[in-house]
Amino acid sequence: MPVLRPLLALALLAAGAVTGVTGPAGPAGAQEAAGGALGLPTDVTRVAGTDPGAPTTLPAGWSRTELPGSAGSRYFSYTRAVAGSGVLVTAAGPGADATSAEAFRIEITTTDGTTCSSQSASRSEGDLGLVVATTTAGDVDPETETETDASCREAESLRITLSRSSSVETATDSDVWFRVVEEAPVDDVSDLPPAEERASVGPVDVGGEAQDEQGGTDVSTAPLVDTGIWRGTVPADGQTAYRVRLDFGQTLYAEAVSPAVDAELAADLGYDTRLRAEVLSPQLSSATTSSSGDNLGTDPASARAAAGPVQYLNRYEVSPAPSRPGEFVVVVSLDAGEDVDLDEVPYTLRLRVDGDAAAAPAYASTPPFVIAEGERADGIELGVPGAEDEAGRSVVRTVAGAGLVAGGLAALLAGVVLLRRQTSR
How far is CA 391 from CA 199, 387, 394, 395, 398, in A? Predict the structure, then answer.
């Protein structure tokens, strides 16, 4: 089998690099790529929700429950911290394993049984990625609000039911994470910028030197980055992630480029190995973003994604663009067929944040987002904040010496392992 030359060349290049970067201090910088779907926070409150007559109280922020397989539901309640707020509920899970079939549904009602909203999510067996259902109660256009909408907005307490969806059959119990966020109301939307069409994917024009920054395997501790060029690797049937902050008025463009492989390996891969890029909203949904993928072959593979522009009034459109600021998640994935003998692939991730941060709407209270118990913010933050410079923006730290050498040797070792794997076939 021919040598996978691009991988080995990149490993040698990394070993001889003159500068390198790491992620923010702490957990975000310690993430390593691993096969499978992205992880979710492990150190969060466990909630039972087994008694429909005594629903378990959900906290603001992250929590976690176990959902039975083919049957069964979980029952929760949530009490607003901000009167009239929009209550954003996300249910997300990696499934019993990274590519298992998975399906569930969340429903929000008032205590008198009025249905406010519901959402289902599913994944077929063999697919990769988080399963995410997200829905909102109390967030409606003031100009079109109905009696039911008003009831959901005014209710002090809400009921949240998590159940299995009938779209996919599974008999395996699985963990499901909740993320509950409140957004303060905006009483007058007449003077806000109009809704804008969702950004389209395309080549990303960004300058500067590429920096080594391995993506994280957990959405809450993925490296926090900004406009720039970042290098990493993604394992076969695996994903890596980066967090990027977007404010109102801003748009994110992302492009992951993987080097070409030689003709013999390309023939072995066929059309079974695909590089993908996508952007998840701060609620972990991809419904308001655009994405594309590309097969590995004798030409470089390019996968693209876009999110934005972030405008408050986008939420009321039929095909909305993102409407809430916060930490968006750029995900690079490598879908591989069952017979593909491939460990990992390097990529260069080109990111560009367009637009200046615009003023926030006139929220009834500020900061407008309740992101955890007793914690409020100007946007929906997903996890551990990165190191901050004087302007308050996230930065990555440049390192040298032993850390640089270790990074280069690790990259070289990875190339040697791949060389042995390919030549032993």
Answer: 28, 11, 9, 10, 18
Q: For 256-286, write each residue's pLDDT tens digit.
A: 999 998 888 888 887 778 999 999 999 999 9
Q: Are 328 and 244 in contact (CB under 8 A)?
A: yes
410 pLDDT more than 90: no
Distances (CA, A) of 89 to 179, 302, 310: 6, 33, 19
Instruction: Give, in degrees to the nearest 5, the angle at Cα 225 between 221 and 230.
Output: 110
Type of residue numbered 299: D
Rounded Cα–Cα distance for residues 331 and 346 (Å)? 14
Closest to 241 measured CA to CA, from 180, 270, 284: 284
Six-digit token string for 383: 């996890």
- Helix (H), strand (E) at residue 77: strand 73-79
Identify residue 320 by its one-letter amino acid code.
P
Evaluated on CA atoms 229, 230, 236, 241, the torsion sign reads negative
Distances (CA, A) of 187 to 139, 198, 234, 365, 376: 11, 25, 45, 11, 20
| Amino acid letter, residue 115 | T
Which of 44, 66, 47, 59 lies closest to 89, judged by CA?
A: 59
- Burial class for 106, CB neighbours closer than 10 Å (0-12, 13-18, 19+): buried
Contacts of residue 375, Cβ cutoff 8 Å, sequence gap at least 6 = 60, 61
Question: pTM for this structure?
Answer: 0.81
